[in-house]
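Allow me, if you will, to draw on your knowledge of protein folds for a short while. I have a record of one protein: its chain in single-letter code and its fold written as discrete structure tokens. I should value your view on which stretches of the chain appear to form regular backbone elements. Thank you for your consideration; the sequence and its tokens are set out here:
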Amino acid sequence: MKVTLDDIRNRESRHLLQTYKRQPVAFVRGRGARLYDVDGREYLDFVSGIGVASLGHAHPGLTAAIADQAATLLHTSNLYYHRYQAEAAVRLAQLSGLPRTFFCNSGAEAVEACLKFARRYWYTQGATERTGFVALEGAFAGRTLGALSVTHSEQYRAPFGPLVGPVTFIDPLKPETLAAALTDRTAAIIAEPILGEGGIRPMSPQFAAAINDACARTGTLYIADEVQTGLGRTGYPFYGQALGLRPDLMSVGKALGGGVPIGAALVSERVAQAVSPGDHGSTHGGNLLGTRAAAFVLDQLMGGLIDHVRTVGIHFERRLRALALRHPSIVEVRGIGLMRGLELSMDATTVVDTARDRGLLVNRTDEKVVRLLPPLNIEATDIDRAVDMLDGVFAALRSEVQV
């Protein structure tokens, strides 16, 4: 018996906690940059699970690694050794320059770990009053209590207070405000090199320099939130590297497992020396399936995929800028590599819905921004197809307004 979209929606409405506003489509399979719904309709996927499906869908090599591991051994706990945590950690150290890794299950958990490790560092130094954080206006770090505490939107924060604090939010367009925000009670600055949920807004070189200067002057730690920007998404292993940022800790997730849930906190040696056994842990964190998938994804990144992102990212930008010249409703094109945003003069919901109806998946962030996060192995021909489809979407919406 075929399961329909209505069947799924009706069951969910009765039994799932209603925390998500889903779009009216249910997917059953994928291949590369394409997804197929319950009715067999094909979609070009420029969301990639919000940056998670880094190698696209049903990648043969990743599929084989996952299947082999599932048939061999899934989980033993962190009471014992296995080979894949170290294999993935070595690759992360090579890409990031941060020598230590703590594995968890998501980006939000990675942020939680970084916040804890920052506080632990100062506790070990005897500066027990250094518990506060400085974060950015427009930042999104996750929905667990610690990550939510350094997320700026009051819409997300208000129902769940009091949150972890103290946290001071500053405007990333005003680097001169950073020094004043730091006190002798500040443990760390946490900042995304590109605000993801905040509208695909890259950090300025001036603000990056202000972070480096402030940390060097005061000893404050810097947590780079690279959950969305990291692991090749921008054509760099981590986008902070392009800005010259020098993090003490880094949160990663999303793309790391290519679809298998896994996150990681990357830690400098000086912070790592302040952490003791029992300070943090995770039952599922670093399990064999997740770390084997991560090791495979990292091998792909180090084997040429990052260079591919840089190449097709330049092509993507050219096509999007040409698109903006044809459609006045596109106010600005932002981003780098395969992390792109189109800021519109209107709410982006209609564009998202119209594109989906035409077989293209994009999503909306910061109300007026169309976010584009295709798989990292996307080819130029699919970029061209997606931009052509967006061209048709904007043209159709413009015609409707004129009518």
About this structure: The chain has a mean pLDDT of 97. The longest helix spans residues 288-326. The radius of gyration is 21 Å.
